Amino acid sequence: MSVDARRHEAIQAHALLGTCLLAQQDAGGLWYLEQVVLLQPETVSYRLMLAEGYRQLGDEARALAVYQEILELAPNHRTAQRAVEELSGHGPQH
Residue 34 and residue 63: Cα distance in Å, rounded? Predict the structure, then answer.
């Protein structure tokens, strides 16, 4: 297995572990997702996982910042657009 393949598997494992921990309301999952974003900063889906994790645990300021980063990478990302509207008070609240 090449170094790139191992790196890719490690990133995916961190993302999975982070989302599993967050599903159990364990804030430790955020650390894993933060590491994934550091390793793959251009991957919008990983940033989305991180933003949703922050939001799920009530850190709306950090969630908003990450959603805004997503929009810098993908200006038409509907989920991030809606989240920014909701978190900034300009859209429907859930």
Answer: 12
How much is the pTM?
Answer: 0.90
Q: What mean pLDDT, rounded, does the chain reach?
A: 93
Residues 18 and 33: beta-carbon distance below 8 Å: yes
Answer for the pair 63, 88: CB distance below 8 angstroms, yes or no: no
Domains identified in the chain, total number? 1
> pLDDT value at position 92?
55
* Cα maximum dimension of the chain: 49
Has residue 67 been placed in a domain? yes
In sequence order, what DSSP letters do the residues of 64-76 get, joined into one string? Answer: HHHHHHHHHH-TT
